[in-house]
């Protein structure tokens, strides 16, 4: 079965701040994005990798690849206005049948087991996402104040989110709404069920400067 992965790195990184876009920041001396791509290559060296980047960052990425002698083959698609639009641009590079994963470029610590588990489950379930338990108490904000909710009713969602190709393409034909915070929410909006598999706790999304400190410890 053909395997594809769309690695989205088309965002602005506003919560991270700084001059260098977060996907290019070094972790253990190597740009985050290279580590993320290597994780998928280590899982399957024949996987079709599609990297989504803002057009304005293409030249910078090319320079980085030369500097770091990074030669893993990948297509490059243009970043869009939101993550939804970036994924949609990446999907245009996916042809034929098979499985397509969507992964945040800023999640370099996804484990090989989690990648394999998602692609394997998607062979029968068509739509699979990795999740982890909530380890803190959760409160719901109400009009009057706030209330504790049963945390076992909730999960934290990670990527890669893996789908049967035609299913994801059909889902991404829908009109964008801001409720689409990940790919599962887009597929669910068509009335399709999503299967949950175990994620890995280290698979953090590098979002704020604090996450970079954690990344340097995890590497
Ligand atoms: N228009 C966008 C927005 C986000 N992403 C990607 O989606 C992933 C998760 O998004 P997030 O962590 O929110 O990244 P940013 O949007 O860059 O961050 P911020 O919201 O702080 O600006 C990132 O790899 C990001 O590059 C994307 O490809 N295209
Ligand atoms: C896709 C995602 O990483 C799953 O947790 C998350 O929804 C992305 O959210 P962001 O606000 O675009 O970072």
TrEMBL record:
It catalyses: 2-C-methyl-D-erythritol 4-phosphate + CTP + H(+) = 4-CDP-2-C-methyl-D-erythritol + diphosphate. Pathway: Isoprenoid biosynthesis; isopentenyl diphosphate biosynthesis via DXP pathway; isopentenyl diphosphate from 1-deoxy-D-xylulose 5-phosphate: step 2/6. It is an enzyme of class 2 (transferase). The record marks 151, 205 as: Positions MEP for the nucleophilic attack. GO terms for molecular function: 2-C-methyl-D-erythritol 4-phosphate cytidylyltransferase activity. Keywords: Isoprene biosynthesis, Nucleotidyltransferase, Transferase. GO terms for biological process: isopentenyl diphosphate biosynthetic process, methylerythritol 4-phosphate pathway. It comes from the Bacteria. The record marks 15, 22 as: Transition state stabilizer. Catalyzes the formation of 4-diphosphocytidyl-2-C-methyl-D-erythritol from CTP and 2-C-methyl-D-erythritol 4-phosphate (MEP). Belongs to the IspD/TarI cytidylyltransferase family. IspD subfamily. This is 2-C-methyl-D-erythritol 4-phosphate cytidylyltransferase. It comes from Phocaeicola dorei CL02T12C06. The gene is ispD.
